């Protein structure tokens, strides 16, 4: 849709209220112990298993894809009563030149390959090159493209400029899903985060995503709350559900629970599926797997299996 500044101009985010709303999410026991395994299994389904490192190699991507196909060890899978091989992650997320390796390694599975593009992580290259990078990654087989927004356009309130760029990126994606990374740690205020979320959605983003993982501050719960409320407001005004992807710095299973609780409380259970919710994380799966192993061997094993049935 066209830029509609009325959807966000004058919107004021109360930072203290956002902080208060999120303060207890990681500490309070909102998920009963016997249901935690089911929530953690759902988190696995929603992970964009990521490697975005300067020393990535075909071999590392191949190993990551093997993990994407079998994210938790077979004995844990069996202990939870899951069908062998049925649980996979939401996607594998890599740099563009790694896309062909990931596509090959994931052949025959339903796991999509996501590629970052548009001069990730800073996005500071000419627009025609950023668009060409998207087209190249799509041609290599990426089904999802994680673009980065031009922070300067957001920081200076050039919403038309930002809308134009993201609209061009959307067109370059073709049939691929587009996730718009706002790099919220560099947007200075929550009001700017709300406005940039709205502009990205108006310009056709299928998902809005917090961070690249390379900013000094990446996914936080208060910023996520602001983005989630923006997509809730956008959905109420347009009828279009948009997905959300917190990304960067998440390493623990308890964070996977906190973000899912936030999604459920703000948007409802429908959002707790990979079509509308992803975690961007390179190293959270290990802790989730460890916690699931405890569930299989611990005193909640029987009730965890029951919750998953
Ligand atoms: O999009 C995903 C992020 O880049 C992953 O960040 P991370 O390595 O801090 O988990």
UniProtKB/TrEMBL annotation:
Record-linked SMART domains: DeoC (SM01133)
Gene Ontology molecular function: any one: deoxyribose-phosphate aldolase activity
EC category name: lyase
Short name of any one Pfam family annotated for the protein: DeoC
Record bears the keyword Lyase: yes
UniProt keyword Zinc, yes or no: no
SUPFAM superfamilies (UniProt xref): Aldolase (SSF51569)
Cited InterPro entries: Aldolase_TIM, DeoC, DeoC/FbaB/LacD_aldolase
Record keywords: Lyase, Schiff base
Enzyme Commission no: 4.1.2.4
Pathway the protein contributes to: Carbohydrate degradation; 2-deoxy-D-ribose 1-phosphate degradation; D-glyceraldehyde 3-phosphate and acetaldehyde from 2-deoxy-alpha-D-ribose 1-phosphate: step 2/2
Reactions this protein catalyses: 2-deoxy-D-ribose 5-phosphate = D-glyceraldehyde 3-phosphate + acetaldehyde
NCBIfam families: deoC
Family indicated by similarity: Belongs to the DeoC/FbaB aldolase family. DeoC type 2 subfamily.
Name of the featured protein: Deoxyribose-phosphate aldolase
Organism: Thioclava arctica
